[in-house]
Automatic annotation (TrEMBL):
Pfam families: cNMP_binding. Gene3D superfamilies: Jelly Rolls. This is Crp/Fnr family transcriptional regulator. Residues 33-117 form the Cyclic nucleotide-binding domain. Signal peptide: none annotated.
Length: 190
């Protein structure tokens, strides 16, 4: 597997030397995850952070009633994380499941901590990425409180057409916080 996509992602976030970029990439291990397999299950400790090279993942929780609540999807050039479980080594509240055969680059906690010590640019990289993720979460939270379900659906479909084509309506409804039946009504009206 090639590390070119990871290198481009890193260079889009920070300025970094070729040597440091190679050092970072050498700590990531290529892995294939089959469709429907889990990279993380609720209640276990997340041992890796991942970068998606190919495929699509769903990051979700299952509540006490058995309802699935999708937080986000990750496709090519996206990161797979449960920061709390990974950094604090506590049981996760999340599930990470491949929605299709996928290729990822994984880094374990020990290697990431070594990188923080040996490559100062790693601190900046993950700070910048954390800030971008926080902005995205904030914008989504605002949309969820100020937009109708129909507006949220259209925003999602227009912003992430490559994801919409890979997932089911039930998964979209779970992400939007509405029922599958209500999503069907929205789509019929469009």
């Amino acid at each position: 597997m090639s590390y070119n996509l990871l290198k481009e992602n890193i260079k889009n976030n920070i300025q970094i030397s070729t040597e440091d970029l190679d050092t970072i990439c050498n700590h990531f291990n290529p892995t294939v995850i089959k469709k429907k397999d889990f990279l993380l299950t609720q209640g276990s400790i997340y041992k890796y952070e991942g970068f998606v090279l190919e495929g699509c993942f769903r990051i979700f929780t299952i509540d006490k009633k058995g309802n699935e609540n999708t937080l986000y999807f990750a496709t090519k050039d996206w990161w797979l994380m449960d920061i709390d479980s990974f950094m604090n080594q506590v049981p996760s509240s999340l599930n990470i499941q491949a929605l299709e055969d996928s290729k990822v680059l994984l880094i374990d906690r020990t290697d990431k901590l070594k990188l923080y010590e040996s490559v100062p640019a790693v601190e900046k990289l993950f700070r910048v990425m954390s800030q971008k993720a926080l902005v995205a979460w904030q914008r989504r939270l605002i949309r969820n409180h100020t937009h109708t379900a129909k507006e949220r659906y259209h925003y999602f479909a227009n912003t992430y057409p490559n994801i919409v084509s890979k997932i089911t309506d039930k998964q979209i409804a779970s992400y939007l916080g509405i029922t599958h039946e209500f999503l069907s009504k929205i789509k019929k009206q469009s």
